[in-house]
Specification:
Length: 507
């Protein structure tokens, strides 16, 4: 028996039994009050009269009435530029210690999002909650003695004036609790290597000296790392190198598109646990097995609001109509798409993170990520979300027994007619016309708006098949390899032309 593992697991069990959980509704009201009270004397708090919001009969309603939505540009131009210039008490008391750099899926220019000490504490607290939830997954005691491979961006943060900058995964890894450092791999020295290929090469060289029980990171980059480790050691699967690997904590994007290709690198099933860590904070994590849903962290440093994801609320540039209806967690319904809006201890206020979610269980505050506001394809009324696209591609994988971990598409005009042009990342040798017909039929069956569009303005579907490596090379050229970088699932016409030119150049 693993004695240390039994002690750790027992301590986690005891902690869980001692904690009385506040309802999400009550927790969120308290979080909002704490945010308003703490920031009431900042420039932002004075400008929007946080004192009067706190004194009102319904602070949640008054908050949404007085404060407008802010996308990144609005927060930066109106408020955060002063923080970047070194001013204090602007949107949060004092100054942030860090700025999270986030190019996300939108392009080369990095966003600079403040990360305060309070946000670091909130992320750590959410991480402790997630560790506590591991006992729900019936893992053996010896799992709690194994090491954890966290594959994120470099922890060698850059100094910019009085602040440190890096991707959120690098910032959080550089702030791991002292008690966790003995379990953390690849370790501080390797994690500081900025060049992703060099970091992965070093991981592969040292892989057999570690007893890895869990992996944590974005699925696409984790797959590439595992392939490098497997190839370096002339192994057949990752379990030949790390036989005790039992858990993969997936973050950044949904795991389902990568499930088939990921499993090909394993010799036995592992437990997959989804997490939702963004540059703006630790938003949610999977709390229990037998679900792909994640529990919102409702008692941390983030107050959430939810705007019904309707075309009339979304402007052409992806911004939100300021008059759009917004709901609290007490008012949401299951199986409806919502735009996620956040206010946080990093001084983000009614901030549009750009993701859409749906509640799968309101009482448990469990959600799934359904897509991005900018990846909503509605050029000819098809109203396609990324979630619908993913579902259609999973049907193709099952029907043709293939793997499609990557894709992107755009609405294009051919001879005056609109088509949906798909690029599928797959190594399968299958007729693209067959794939196009299968995607078309799957979407017609799943989405009434798409079906109507196909009978009117949407002429047809075309499919191009390329290696998944082309998507990774594109990301490396446009942004950076590894870390938090994700592929754009829907592109506008100009960017799509760049993509097609790039694909032609590497063929």
């Amino acid at each position: 028996m693993a004695i240390l593992g039994s002690i750790i697991k027992g301590a986690i069990d005891l902690r869980g039994s001692l904690i009385s959980e506040t309802s999400p509704k009550e927790a969120q009201l308290q979080v909002l009050k704490n945010l308003l009270s703490t920031a009431k004397d900042t420039a932002f708090g004075k400008y929007y009269s946080f004192d009067s919001i706190l004194d009102s009969e319904n602070p949640q309603k008054e908050f949404s009435k007085i404060i407008p939505f802010h996308d990144y540009n609005a927060m930066k131009e109106n408020w955060w530029n002063r923080v970047i210039d070194g001013a204090h008490d602007i949107t949060w008391p004092g100054k942030p210690s860090y700025f999270a750099l986030s190019s996300g899926t939108t392009g080369k220019t990095s966003k600079r999002i403040p990360v305060t000490d309070e946000m670091i504490d909130a992320i750590k607290a959410a991480g402790v909650q997630q560790v506590g939830a591991l006992v729900n997954f019936e893992l053996e005691s010896d799992f709690f003695e194994k090491e954890i491979m966290m594959l994120g961006s470099s922890t060698d943060l850059e100094e910019r004036g009085e602040f440190l900058e890096g991707e959120i995964s690098g910032i959080t890894a550089s702030n791991i609790p002292f008690w966790f450092k003995g379990y953390y791999k690849p370790g501080e020295d390797i994690a500081k290597i900025d060049d992703w290929d060099e970091r992965v090469k070093t991981i592969a060289e040292r892989a057999k000296s570690w007893d890895i029980g869990a992996l944590s990171g974005i699925p696409s980059w984790m797959e590439l790392m595992m392939k490098e480790v497997i190839n370096y050691h002339n192994a057949e699967t990752i379990h030949d190198v790390w036989p005790n690997l039992q858990v993969f904590t997936s973050g950044g994007v949904a795991f389902q598109p990568y499930e088939k290709s990921f499993n090909l690198l394993l010799s036995k099933p592992i437990t997959v646990i989804d997490t939702y860590l963004a540059s703006e904070g630790f938003i949610a994590f999977q709390n229990r097995p037998n679900t792909t849903s994640m529990k919102l962290v409702t008692d941390g440093g983030i107050y959430f609001e939810f705007m019904p994801f309707k075309p009339e609320y979304i402007n052409e540039d992806g911004s939100l109509d300021q008059n759009a209806k917004v709901l609290t967690i007490a008012e949401v319904e299951e199986d409806q798409d919502y735009v996620l809006i956040m206010s946080s201890v990093s001084g983000a206020w009614r901030y549009i993170i750009g993701d859409t979610i749906a509640f799968t269980d309101v009482e448990k505050a469990e959600i799934v990520i359904t897509g991005r506001t900018k990846f909503f394809l509605n050029v000819v009324g098809s109203q396609l979300s990324v979630n619908k696209m993913d579902t259609a591609l999973r049907e193709l994988e099952q029907k043709f027994d293939i793997e499609i971990p990557e894709f992107t598409l755009a609405a294009v005009k051919r001879n005056g007619e609109f088509y949906h042009s798909w690029y599928l990342g797959t190594e399968a040798n299958i007729d693209v016309a067959t794939l196009a017909n299968a995607i078309d039929e799957a979407l017609k069956g799943a989405n009434k708006n798409y079906r109507v569009a196909r009978s009117k303005a949407l002429k047809g579907v075309e499919v191009h098949s390329v290696s998944p490596s082309v998507f990774y090379d594109w990301n490396e050229r446009n942004k950076k390899k590894g870390g938090q970088v994700k592929m754009a699932r829907v592109m506008k016409e100009e960017k799509f032309k760049e993509w097609e030119d790039f694909v032609s150049s590497v063929k």
